[in-house]
Design goal:
Helix content is 0%, strand content 56%. With 171 residues, the protein is mostly beta strands.
Length: 171
């Protein structure tokens, strides 16, 4: 990728990305900004490692709709990087064995999607907020895995929900 660019930009619907590593560091110049980006419907991302990007490993922007499936992901975020970003997501997001380490782990801004992260998923933050949930208009958020944060980090931040939104951490 070009310095500061996105490695993969998702199409409008039905994307399946499976079984390889995205390394944002090509050894010359700046690293890639985002590993996988773009609003999409019914995406499946599985069996991936994403590392060495400068903004976000996966950034769905404001368009994760329908059924989004995340399975067997290892996301190594830098100190100022977010593992996964969802903006205004709708539909369902099912995550199995999704592990983020580094800066900020998981950001959910707006939307009314039903999120479900299983007990094999984990978020570990060293500098940013491990899980940030802000301005949701409804839906649900369930996280059965572990959430950890370092000395310079925050664990869980929830703010400004405008509608009925059920949030649970059971790990």
């Amino acid at each position: 990728t070009a310095d500061g660019a996105n490695a993969i930009t998702l199409g409008a619907s039905g994307n399946i990305i499976d079984g390889f590593t995205i390394d944002g560091n090509d050894g010359a110049g700046a690293n890639a900004a985002i590993g996988i980006s773009g609003g999409t419907a019914n995406a499946t991302i599985r069996n991936m490692t994403i590392r060495n990007v400068t903004a976000a490993d996966i950034d769905f922007g404001s368009g994760a709709t329908g059924t989004t499936t995340l399975t067997n992901l290892t996301l190594n975020a830098g100190a100022t990087t977010t593992g996964i970003k969802f903006g205004a997501a709708t539909g369902t997001v099912t995550a199995t064995n999704v592990d983020t380490t580094g800066g900020s782990g998981l950001s959910v801004f707006g939307g009314n999607a039903a999120f479900s992260f299983d007990s094999t998923s984990s978020v570990s933050s060293v500098a940013g907020t491990a899980v940030r949930i802000v301005n949701r208009s409804g839906g649900s958020f369930g996280f059965a895995g572990t959430v950890t944060s370092g000395v310079a980090a925050s664990g869980i931040f929830i703010s400004a929900g405008l509608g009925l939104d059920t949030i649970g951490f059971t790990g």
